Backbone:
């Protein structure tokens, strides 16, 4: 049996995701295992749907199993997120890692990924950052200058999925890693348009404004997600409270450098909302995604010390499965212990997961989703 892994968010699961599953299957893989973040995303936002509903959508639309990427490892910078996801794919014994990207030129992606360790590239990058260029644009321009890329190639490498793809390729350089399988992405990553391949952000926005056109943009088997997408609310005051914890506490969080804790703390004390504080703190050097992660780290208590204590996946936790043969094969190949919630009670990584899920519950409006302790009460997902 040939297994492929997909590192994913599915927030919500949409047609582009279904296409990737289908293309991966057509490439000759008998089993597809999705490695999905839980209730805290890589960009530092609480998920718009429960991880159990997102797992269900994936299983109904072609995935064979869904494994959790723990929040402690998921809500991190792109390189840390990629290393964790690839480590789980390796522990599953997957032969390939399938990922979507704005370009399917694997040779270009490999060259760009490898060159990011080069001193010449770092010098070009730092020079552009010093001039106030945003990090994604600075990285794209630095790669273009060093690798003699065309404007089209440079633009492709500055897109969100391409940036993550390069981090996957760097992580896949570790011995025993799966082979990369690139699937060309359809549609724009943050486009607000509700076309055939509407982005996850477009679908979330449509649900909140009550635009029913969003429902038809979901795969037929995944339309149960639609009413759940709007069953959420913001917890801005909690984020603002966390950001006002003071610069000494903020300095203990991951990704803090160059006095960023002082900038954010001052903005939070003067602002009337977390949204306002983060917008005030944002600049070309500090992107909104980085600041959103900082806010999430502050609220959840995800400190740099905690990340150092748990730098890599420690277990495999299955959220759901629809193919018993693939499930048996995962169990046979697994190089990390496969554990359920009952056996993870004393694990620090899983205790943090429970904490995150209880906070996520506060973002929900449905009574059944607002309960505490859902990590122990929600059943294993079967399509």
Residues:
């Amino acid at each position: 049996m040939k297994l492929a892994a997909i590192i994913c968010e599915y927030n919500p699961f949409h047609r582009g995701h279904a296409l990737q599953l289908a293309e991966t299957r057509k490439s000759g893989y008998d089993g597809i295992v999705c490695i999905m973040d839980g209730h805290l995303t890589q960009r530092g936002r609480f998920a718009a749907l429960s991880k159990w509903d997102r797992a269900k959508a994936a299983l109904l639309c072609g995935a064979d199993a869904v494994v959790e990427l723990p929040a402690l490892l998921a809500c991190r910078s792109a390189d840390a997120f990629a290393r964790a996801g690839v480590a789980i794919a390796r522990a599953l014994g997957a032969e390939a890692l399938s990922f979507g990207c704005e370009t399917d030129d694997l040779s270009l992606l490999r060259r760009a990924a490898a060159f990011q360790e080069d001193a010449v590239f770092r010098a070009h990058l730092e020079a552009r950052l010093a001039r106030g260029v945003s990090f994604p644009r600075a990285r794209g321009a630095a790669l273009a200058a060093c690798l003699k890329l065309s404007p089209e190639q440079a633009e492709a490498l500055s897109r969100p999925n391409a940036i993550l793809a390069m981090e996957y390729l760097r992580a896949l350089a570790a011995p025993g890693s799966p082979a990369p399988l690139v699937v060309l992405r359809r549609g724009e990553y943050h486009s607000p348009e509700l076309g055939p391949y509407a982005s996850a952000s477009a679908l979330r926005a449509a649900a909140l404004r009550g635009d029913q056109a969003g429902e038809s943009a979901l795969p037929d088997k995944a339309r149960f997600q639609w009413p759940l997408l709007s069953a959420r609310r913001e917890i801005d005051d909690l984020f603002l409270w966390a950001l006002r914890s003071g610069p000494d506490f903020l300095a203990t969080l991951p990704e803090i450098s160059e006095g960023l804790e002082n900038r954010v703390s001052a903005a939070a004390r003067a602002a009337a909302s977390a949204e306002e504080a983060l917008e005030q703190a944002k600049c070309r050097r500090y992107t909104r995604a980085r600041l959103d992660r900082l806010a999430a780290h502050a609220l959840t208590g995800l400190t740099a010390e905690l990340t150092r204590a748990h730098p890599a996946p420690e277990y495999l936790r299955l959220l759901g499965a629809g193919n018993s043969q693939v499930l048996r094969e995962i169990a046979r190949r697994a190089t990390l212990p496969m554990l359920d919630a009952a056996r993870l009670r004393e694990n620090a990584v899983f205790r943090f997961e429970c904490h995150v899920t209880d906070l996520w519950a506060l973002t929900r409006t449905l009574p059944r989703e607002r309960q505490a302790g859902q990590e122990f009460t929600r059943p294993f997902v079967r399509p």
